[in-house]
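Our consortium's second objective concerns turning raw sequence data into structural hypotheses that experimental partners can test. To show how far this objective has progressed, the report includes one record in full. It was chosen at random from the queue rather than selected for favorable results. The single chain below, 562 residues long, was entered without modification.
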Amino acid sequence: MKTMPGGESAVGGGAGGPGQALRLARSARGALALRPGADIWHKPALSVVITLALPEVALLLAGRLDLAFYVTAGGLCALYAHGQPYAARARTLAWVVLGMLLSTAVALTTAALTDSTAVRVAVAALLAAVHKTVCDATRIGPPANVIFTFVAASAAFLPQRLADIPAHLALGALGGAIAWLVCMAPALVRPHGPERIAVARALEATARLLRANGSRHDTAAAADAARRSLRMAGPGPHLTGLGLLLIRAESAAANPAVHRDRAERFREWAHDLRKGRSLPETGPAHAAEAPEPTGADTGTEARAASGPRAALRAFAPDSPLLPVAARVALGGALAGWASMALGVDRPYWAVVTATAVFAANTTMSWHRGLQRALGNLLGVLLFTALVPLTSTGRAALVAVALACQFATEATIARNYWLGSLFVTPMAMIMVQFAGAEPARQLITDRWLDTCVGVAAGLLVCFLVPNRRAAGRVETALAHVDAAVTAPVPSRERLAVTLLELREAADTAGGEWWSAALPQERIAAAELRGHRTLAALTVPSAPAATTAAARVVARASSPGPAQ
């Protein structure tokens, strides 16, 4: 591991070989280690349980639990966009629901038109590649493409008639509408809750940096996320106050050695924000320093582009996402066909497992493969242990599925394998809603599908190189240089380009067959960029207020997308 100037660490790039393989083996223990839980895990957990419980209980009482899969497909959209301000969340959730319905429609139509398992596997794998590409391009965030792929792959193997598809999609739309309402409901109580949490995270990251327990990169990423949250939320007095807190945090992060005594103050401010208390007083000297939240297409907004434009750009011939999409399509198809050859009638789980393995690079995919294999196999054991309970009746099926869904969201941030332990029985129960497979057959098939899926995913990941990863580093280096040498430097644009460089370097450094990265150039660019960033950061002295306002105004003005 190589330590970068800002305190970050990067995996050095280089050609694959025994040394790389040894490094992957040594990293296995770290891949399975547990991390602290997510700070707002209860929000998606409660949202999805409420969303799914309402229609599933209604279908249970109506004696039509066989239709629960379709309404659940839309209801799972309640897992998305919990970190976004409510105005942006409303738009994002609408796109998520639409994407889920379109994907499900393709899968159901395929199931209705053909009995060929090979064709169904191919369609599911292609849909998985589309899901991965679109979710990465739009930076939709957890759970990203996995939920889309699970629903589509499962739907492709359900018994289906063309005449029933409109009704089934209507149920999916109903589930999506409930998800939208449930996820938007907290706006009635805490309309600025997401923005407060985003700024609280930035304050906490700054406090860790000041105590020498955090990295400059993590602090910059938290500040970038907070700034983006304020911009998406729009203008307002409350948001101006949050902007003042963010400015104070960024000022301290620029010179941590000078401001170490502020760490406890930032931690207390973050605590107040999370508890919904009044905004702390930051002093009149900083009244002009707050960034005005706007809808401008700044560098930050370009980096977090969402919607159809970002999705379409991801499929351009020169897109850096296409090699990963090719891996997903090939790995999913190979896993499904191999599982089919081994006698599995509905190898959708092999497709889902293989496509879930693919991460940003080979090293991360290796970690994800280990996590997926362990979590899925333990999940099958958990499902086996629960069979005596779930076989007592349909009500037990619903109760166990909801409990597993809640447990998944409570644990998955600690490690992917721990979340997979609970998501596996939940997914198996969803298939049982439709009565597609008996429990004994499900258990046998899922064991086989998991092993085949992980093996196929890792095999394709190692054999299909992503040679565009190194090119992305060169592009990021050029962006940092342009941001540093601009006649009128934009602090915000420079911060975004530094984040892009670190992300590109980490991605390329984890590729098994990657060419050696220009580590010295990367280190020099980051050092120069962070020094420039510190110089542009708004200082505490009142004399700098006017200059700070000009920097903020430039960052808020429209500019070319990066």
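The partners drew two points from this record. Confidence is low (pLDDT under 50) at residues 1-17, 284-305, 539-562. The two ends are 29 Å apart (CA to CA). Both points have been shared with the crystallography group to help prioritize constructs.
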